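User: Continuing from earlier, I have the next pair ready.

Assistant: Great, send them over.

User: Here they are, in order.

Assistant: Folding the first of the pair now:
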Amino acid sequence: MAMVLMASCSNAEDKLRSTEGSQPVDITACKIASTRVGYSEVGADVAAAWEETDAISLFTLEGATVNRGTLKFVNFPDAGDKTMANFTGRLDKDVSSTTQIYAYAQYPNVYNTSGGITNDLHFQTGKLTGDGSATTHDVLYATAAYDPNSTQSVKMTFSRRMAILKFVLALPSDIGHAAVTACKVVGANLYNKVSLNIQDAALREGIQGSISIDAPGVEVADGAASFYVAVYPGELASVSIPITIGGAKYSVAAGNITVGAGEFKTIEVPADQFVKNAYDVEGTVTDTEGNPMPGVVVSDSYTCVQTDARGHYEFNRNAAAKFVYYTVPADCAIPTHSATDNTAYVYLPLEEGVSRYDFKLKKLAGGKESSYKMIVIGDPQVTNAYNPYFTSADDNQIDVSDVYRFTHETMADIKKTIASLPAGTPVYGLSMGDDVQYYGGYNATLESQIRAALGSSSMILFSVIGNHDQDGNAIYKSKWEENFGPTDYSFDRGDVHYVCFNNCWFYSGAAYYQPGELTDEQMAWLEQDLSFVDKSKKVVLSYHIPLTFGTRPKAGAASLNLPTESAHYSSSRLAKFMSLLGQFSGGYELFCGHTHFAINHEIDFGGQHILEHCHAAACGDIWQSNINICGTPNGYYIYTFDGTNTQDCYYKGTFWESSRQMTLFRADTDFNAETYAADWSIASGKGAVVANVFNADSKWKVYAVENGRKTEMTRCNSQGQDAFAVGYHHKYAKSNAYSFFSKKNAYLIMNHLYYYVPTDPNAEITVEAVDGYGNTYRETTANVVTEPFYNYAHYYSK
């Protein structure tokens, strides 16, 4: 298969001559398959011929800049040989010296994008030729050097980069000649969309999924059903054909198929591989060696089942289910969306007419990880392209997007943190929801942008859905699901079972009233999920809105009569949650986000002391500053799990040293008309010191050391505000209401402020904070913030 570039030709179309370039590019193409209908099956191969309707896309690359052109058919040099043809056209811009050119034959389903050559394989007719057929989903590619100053032709050899399979399914005798009404091809490593590099047509990126075959394209004759399908070449595993014949649904196992680029292969499947479906969803879970994986939990987020000794599972899907996922066992690796996108990919979309969903798991080389890090990120909450919140201090105008800030601040710091850990330390991640907010209008790419950012480090990350990922809009929610999969799912790491679920539900016409509850169906699913978990494990529940103080009275919730419920109630499901969690001797953790302030919230309920970790937001006050509304810096949390023990947890402020776990203030300092002394009734005029200890809870001990004498500081623990945070946001935040970040926000509970009134107002005080894990953190009043707060960039650059 070849083509020739010639120095001159008079056959160029006028519309091509109107492009920017002036150099004519004329082509003779030899032995190339047609881009339309010129294929024919000859024995075990396909023969091809050019068509007069064919066209060729042409590229050159100058660094990252792509120079494109289109070439149209001119004639056949030999009328009797349709494998050779002349084409003519121009590049958009002339080239001055010998340049490598790249070309592919155009199809309706094969087209160029900014990053490569895209082939959409989703839907095919099942025919060999014709519009939408297997051959119109092929990619015909060539490359050669082009000298614009030469009068000599430059031949290029085209090659086929896809493969074509012909399936011949022997029909069981009881099927007869009934009509086919649905047909798909599914399997591991089967791509339904690929993007190829311009330079070499190698795979750039791809989306794995099923390929739909047009039912009329499946020919039923001589006791067999046959059709053609174009696939990206490779080792296709556990290939099956979900097919509906005469109203009955079957799964037809075709096994593993290895096929190379340009290959045409016939796959004959015997009749005994037809299995009539008794269930809507079924499949097999195996390891990479093909061995069955018994005991793996598989679910559609409504029904949970375990695989049997053969690794097989089956159940009837819920009509509302959108995905089937498996709970990753602790001794297996977590698959990701791609080599460059480390967000977890443990699910498959449920498709109409498809009942078989197989999964392949990779065993961890060292077995179950007894110890690992879990990085927890609260509310990334990136908004649309350029956020009007970016009006900060007059001399510090910020004009970059939220996604940019999250990528270059939060994720950059996370990458640095991971790099500082001992080599080989397993690191995982959890985003606690509100990955996006469609502030300013809908942006169809926002969820994919934040997924790319979240997946850009070496940690493998899971996400839960938040209220702003949905905001009562089905399209918004579907975008989150499109990028992250099911909203209710679970996975295992070490001796910990993680359950992630959606607890943001919207009443009709009330986009911002989230009850922070679970439906009856969710509770039934949760109970099923936990029933399969070893009762010696620890369980971590992960969700967005707090369970202990997240439910709004306006959402129709009822108070549990707890002291913390003056503005927001505890979940009505709390008693059931605690009953379920009480089964596990390894204990539990409750993880959430939502609030934009840090709090380890503790309540006494039902005879139990409950602590809920409400994680500060990575975005702080929605990217209006570098702080949350409680004064905690933008950042994230690093947990160490060892067996069932939560061995350590500390807060990592973005661009802060990990040892820095507090900020000190003087109670009398005027932060733009806000003071700690006034807010918390602290003695004025005596040099009182206030410590904001970001991750504190009741197990922490915080001391002031004055002239060698250590005194335990007084803890603030009630609804209130942080004067430092309010002072900044009140003056510089241009979008959020004062009621959001001040004491007028009845949701805001401050329990990590501590104060001390020294004997000597001029003494230098050292604050020592000892956490529940035995770590001691220190700060001195030499670093106290004593000036009215002006510009967060100035402060955080110190």
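And the other member of the pair:
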Amino acid sequence: MSLPLSSLHAQRALPSSSRSPKLPEVYVLVPRSPYSLCPSEAIGARTTNCSHHNPLTQLRAHNMPITESPLTAIKRKRSEENLDETEQRAPETKSKRPKVTTMTSKAQGSTRPSRTEESNMTAEFPNGFFYCHQCNKKRDSSVGLYCTYKIRASHSVARCKAKYCRPCLKNRYGQDLDEIKDRGIDGQSKDTAGHDKAQGYIFKYAELAVPPSIFLLLDLARCPRCLGNCNCRGCRKAKGLEPTGNLTLAAKKTGADSVAVMLDRNVKMTGILPGKGKQTPDDPNRRKVPKPPKVPNTDTHVTAPKPRLPVSRKPKPLPKVLWTPVPVPSSFTLDLALPRIAIREFVLRFGKLLDMSRAHLEELEEIGGRRSHEVDDDDDELEQDIDVEMGWVGETCLRAILLGLLSLLLNSQPEFGGKQEKKAIQDAIQEIKASCANLSRMWSALAALRAEFAKADNKPIFPNPLPPPQNTKIHTTRSGALNGGGISVTSTAQLVPIILPLIEMVLNAQAIRDEFEEGVKEAKERVKEEKERAKAIREQWEVKKKTNNPDKATRTEYKRTLSALEQAQRVTLHAYALRFAPLGTDHDGRIYFALTPSVAEREAAAALLAGDMTKGGKAQGRAVVSADERSALRRWGWFISVWGKKPVDGFVPAGEDDEDDDVERWWGIWQPDEIRRLADWIAIKNGLAEGKHLITDTKGEGRDKRAAAVPDGRPLAASAKTSSLPKTGSHESRSGASSSNLTPLSVASDTEDEPGFDSSLSSVSGEESGGESNEDDGEVQMHGGDDPRPLPSPNELRTLVKSLIEYAEVLDWRVWRMQEEPGCKEDRAVKDKDKTKAAGGRIRAISPANFYGRAAR
């Protein structure tokens, strides 16, 4: 540009006296500015001559003052008079910066051609290759699927980049690549909207996250990444989850369609991860071999110690168990004994509701019956009616059972019918009360009741009684005429099939259900009492140890007291049991039973837990069961009863016939040490003691060693050995039952056991069995020969062994209660003599009510 310098100094001219002569004007060529000054910037008036070169600019003289550019900042304030025309006009010509519009860029973006991917075909991959989103492996393009869903980005729309190979689609998500490609593109616009149709198929139908089990059921192919259920390592890490590892084999074993279905059930499930080393648990049965120590310097000539070899223990020999035959004929089979056992356990459980006396309950102890003569087992004619020939309970006991059941049935109306059935029950009760324990009259009343119930629909009808024993003389009287369909009843054993249906009828009575609920509450109270009593005894013991040094006898008594509380709790909880069942079955098919203790023992155990040491201590009077009575094996609540064949290596008492080894019959093990040996024998026989060291509880210091004498000539030392079986000393121990449907009690209650209530029902859990696997339980094996029964699983065998050990511990305490202290026998004889003298030497007569019980009133 060119600016005249003379105009800039027009107002600064010197006075005429000192004015110098006019100098000639000089012009210089100034290069053009690289910045554009149009159209908003214009400092001065530009020349109209659009020459290629800028116009010449006049230079100032050497003595001319320096002019300031109108664009530079003015350091001092100047008046408008000192500003030239250009400077005054410069602010007016300045304009705002124009806004930048995006219309052009949007138009250009919409018309921009799409980017084409370069071909990656090679000799190894003629169709091209891609990297699978799941396994991150290089795969051929022909064995993969591209997601066709278009993802809306910030300024553009692009297709999803996820690509999956054929194996990952099948194993991880249960989708078939060929089916998706063969399906093609659906013509409906609602399904194909927002998808790229260039691939020839649609790989995603919806944006909603659907569980894998549902989209497999609907047969809809979806991209797992767009769906939100991708289980690759990266997608799971974004959700804060660990990698799944190899779950393909686990899915095949469980029968799942894919890994995604398994993760739908448990999102945190993981398998074996690569690069993590050995992840399978070590074998607990394998003994670790210690590593040899490292030798720091070989120049010292110090030999390293040899590694310690694992100790190889000798296999424990099988103990010899004494198998005593129960005094019942071999024809008295399991099917004949089970109804009697069921009636006994039901009556003992609900004795209060049935209004049964203690004398009548004691009669039920003899499952084999109270027969007055021996039954010939070799008589084939008696084999059909052996249970009738053996007899059962007395007439008054049977009368009390029938009255109790009919009373419960009457009180449960209207569940069991209307007015006619209720009147029939009342008439039967009155007739049985007036029968004077005549069996024929009692059956006549039951027959009339059955006829009335048969008139209504869906009413249980009990069968006819069993036939009377052979060679029985029947005396017909006016009061005992044959009114029951011409059937004569001369033995209480004939009515055993009648009582079981009556029990089934009263199971739904409200009184039975209330008794179950009340029993659960009382059981919790008994457990609480045992804990409080044990805590108080331990605190007293700690104080006693600090004050004086207790001797061995004092420590033994302390341990016996704690053990007595534990066993008393086990005995007490039988009164609140929900059901009864056998202990279990061994490897040879023998079935083991442990009948519950009597009512008198339950009351004594409850008194001990309550703190009454007198009633909960030693038994007195007729409550004492001597060793002779226990060894006679007539009271089935005092021994382990076993149905089956005697083992080949088993012993029988001296004088017993050992020819019936291959015959199934009832056997009894009545000594606590023999029961422990039996449990040890089962454990070793089935290999339960090889995997881990199992030790029996040996805290029975009060055990009578003389009662463990073996009559077959075995040494006493063998009976005192410690067996290698599980220690059972917890409150959750079980000693008499397991879950089964042996008795009506199992039908009456189908609820789960309450916490803290030991109902003796559950089997050994995974924690009790040492956390061992239950893989052996999945394969059901059968006994050899014609026996259709399945073999017990290892867990069932452990439950049986544990139950036998617990029963032996309880039996130790029960036997201790029945033993007399030294010197007590003489003291009791003196007291009885003093009582006789005080009565004047006369013996008082016993009233009929006390002799026959309350049912005879």
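Worth noting for the second one:
Residues 335-376+383-469+482-510 form one domain. The first helix runs from residue 5 to 8.
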